[in-house]
Each structure stands twice: as C-alpha cells, then as structure tokens.
Amino acid sequence: ALLTKTVTATLPAALLVVFWWKRGRLEWRRDVRPLLPWFALGAIAGLFTAHFERALIGAQGGDFVLGAVQRLLLAGRVFWFYLGKLAWPADLMFIYPHWTIDPSASSSWLFLLAALASLTAAVVAAVRDRRFRAPLAAGLLFAGALFPVLGFLNVYPFVFSYVADHFQYLASLPVFALVSAGLAGARAPALVRGGAAVGLLAVLGGLSRSQCRMYRDATTLYETTLRQNPDCWLAAHNLAILRAGSGRVPEAISLEQKVLQLHPDYAPAENNLGDDLMRLGRTGEAIPDFERAIRLQPDYAVAHRNLGMALAMTDRVAAALPHFELAAQLDSGDAEAQLDWAMALLQTGHAADALPHFARALALNPKSAETQLAFAQALRQLGRIDEAQQHALEARRLQPAP
What we know:
Helix content: 55-70%
Low-confidence stretches: none
Radius of gyration: 29 Å
Order of helices and strands: HHHHHHHHHHHHHHHHHHH
Oligomer: single chain
C-alpha cells in the first residue's frame, strides 16, 4: 500500500483506534508492539514523500510560507470543509479557491474552536458510556487519515488550493462506516430502511453522473472550473494551452494575460504568452515576455530556446547564441535545442564548432531531414564535400521532394 499511495502510512495508527474502539483499551504486547515495524515503514515513506514534494516537485518557497498559528487554523478549516462535502456534496470543483488564512480575523478561529469542542464532547461521551466510543473513533480515524493534507506538511497542490476532493477518499471510509452502522441499527421497519438505502444510492448516483460531465474532456474540465472558480489561474493557463493548440491564439493570449494578473510570477505563463505572440507574427513583442520568464526561472530551458528563436528572427543571432547554448545544456536530451544551437553557430561563422551539435541532434533524432540538410551545409562550408553529400542524400531519402 505504501508503494501505491503514501497516505496509507496512517494505517497503523488507524488500527490502534479500531482496537481501542472494540475493546476500550490498548495493550502494548498485543496491540502496539506488533505494529512498530509498520510505524517505522510509514515514517520512512512519509519522510521520503515529504522530501520528494519539497525538493523535486517544488513544494517550497513563498507560496508555502505559513506560520504555526496559520497552519493550526488551516487544519481546522480543512477538517470541516471535507466533513461538510461528505454530508452535502454540492458545488464540487476540480480546483477550489485558494483561501487566505488570516489569524487576525475572528472568523478564522471558529473552525479550529469547533473542532476542539467536538473532540472534547466526543471524549467525554466515550468516557461516560462505552456505547459512544464509535463517534470518537470515527472522528479520530477521519482526522488521522487527513493529517498529511491538513496543512502541517507542504504538498505541491497547495499552490493552487488547500483542498481537493481526492485528498479525503481514504479518510471518508470511517465516516461512511459510522453513518451506515447508524442507519442499519435504526428502529424502523426493514422496508423503510431498504427504501431509504435505495433512495440514498439513487441520489448519490445522480450526483455522480452529473459531476462526471465536466470530465468529458480537458477543455470542458477547465471551462467548468473557471466558471466555478474564476480566479483559478491554473485552469486559465491550461485552457490557454488548449486554445493555442486548436488555433485560437488570440483567446490563448487573453487567458495567459489573465493568469499573469492572478499569479504575476508564473514563468510558464510568461513563456507561453511570448510563444503565442510569435504565432501571430508579433515577435518583437514576445521578447520581453521570454526575458521575464527567464528572470523568474533562470533554468527554464524552453524559455531560453524561445528567446533565442525570437532574437534570431529579429536578426540578432549573436545575442541568441548564448540562449540556445544554455537551452541545450539545461535539456541535453532535446534534439531541437541542439539543432538551434548548431544553426546559430553556423550563422555566426562557427561552422566547425557547430558540427558536434549537429551530430548530437542527429543522435537524438536520426530521422530529421532538416538536421541532415543543415549538417550537410556546415560540412560544405568546411570543404568536406563527400561527407556533406552523404548527409544531403540522407535528407532527400528522409524527405523526398514533392
């Protein structure tokens, strides 16, 4: 389970809650000690995932700066958000609005205080009467399974929203079990209970069918998300990519401009805006966008390559050369970046220096007629006619004349 979804690291603690619910006590030898290896494996998996989120995916920086008090307040709000969506699954969204956690606002404390009050009441009820251990157990299981996404740890989706429906799939199980047990034990004729169950399933099935409509395709998904959450910059950015891909470039530009209003420091939006402007022939206007994308993200290989292309298209090949070089170095597996670098070297009179990059581009993409032809041109400039002819013939073979 850990190798499938690290959130199952909470399972050992959940088993202890189940043992306590069944027997009213925990024993070290019978209950706790056998689970110690599980706790150890869960801790290792959790630490690895936390490192992965932070170091490799990017769950760090200004977007994740929250104080200890803010994280407590966030946890209280997240808890009630998910419980509320289970009780009343209305207005479900692919990406929910990103909350502002303000400790100075009295309303921010209500969720945390309500959670603490509910916990206290559940503990008192369980102590007074063993029959009321189940609500406390369900609450502990629910909160425990949610712990990785309550806000105490950074996960990358927090950049977009602090909540997502799929975060509570595992946590929902004890709530469903508690409610189902309550309905099954209700004092009502079997026919009434059966009818209620069928009715509930029918309602939930209808809601599921309706919810699935927005997942018909990517365009529908992002359009629906923007209608529900107009400030969702990620949905606007992804929809812009789809619009540009289908030839609706002016719409894509408008969407990327909206993204930059909502999230001014988002380098991919700056790069894509420049790319869309180039598609419309507005190359000079695109250059500042590529430059800003690189300032925001200096190791952005695609932005360096795009800036190089824009500079080359405006007769500034010498200025483009270092950007092509850096793009190829940052993404050594990109055949197009190697070709661009080689072409810039060739155009600036460095044919000999261009040869290894033409060779590298061909090694990455042997079926590129364009690369074969450019390689032939470089070899011809250096007087290596026989080799040039071989590459020219290969280019003709790969792409015969119409």
